[in-house]
Amino acid sequence: MADFLDNFNADIDPLLMVDLGDEITFVPSSGGTVVIQGEFNEKFYLTDAETGVETVSPAVECLEADVINAQGGSIIRKGVSYAVKGKAQPDGTGMVLLVLRLA
Q1: How confident is the model at residue 85 (pLDDT cuts 50, 70, 90)?
Q2: What confidence score (pLDDT) does residue 69 get?
Q3: How far apart are CA 100 and CA 25, in angstroms?
Q4: Helix (H, G, I), strand (E, B), or coil: what is residue 24?
Q5: Half-sphere exposure in the Cβ direction for 71 (13 Å, CA)
Q6: Could you tell me the residue ranges of all domains in the chain?
Q7: pLDDT tens-digit series, residues 6-40
Q8: Would you say 81 and 75 are in contact if contact means Cβ atoms under 8 Å apart?
Q9: d(C-alpha 44, C-alpha 18), whole Å
């Protein structure tokens, strides 16, 4: 069953991003630019598991394959530049969450 779900998600996630995602420019730390689709959230709520403290930060969810080596990179959306905070957070289905901060 897990193989079926993994294959299903791998097939469906790119289609959903094209229909539901925003056009975003990813700038890897190594340079260059790549236009990707991602679901941008200006007010993503983060909870620190150790302290229980909640913070609000911009974030984008996108295909993991689109943002290889995201750490140290940046995202440009609608002319606004955001730096990727920390490491990408994969969800195990081929999608990844990038927590951002204004650059």
Answers
A1: very high
A2: 84
A3: 14
A4: strand
A5: 5
A6: 2-94
A7: 544 445 444 554 456 789 999 999 999 999 999 99
A8: yes
A9: 21
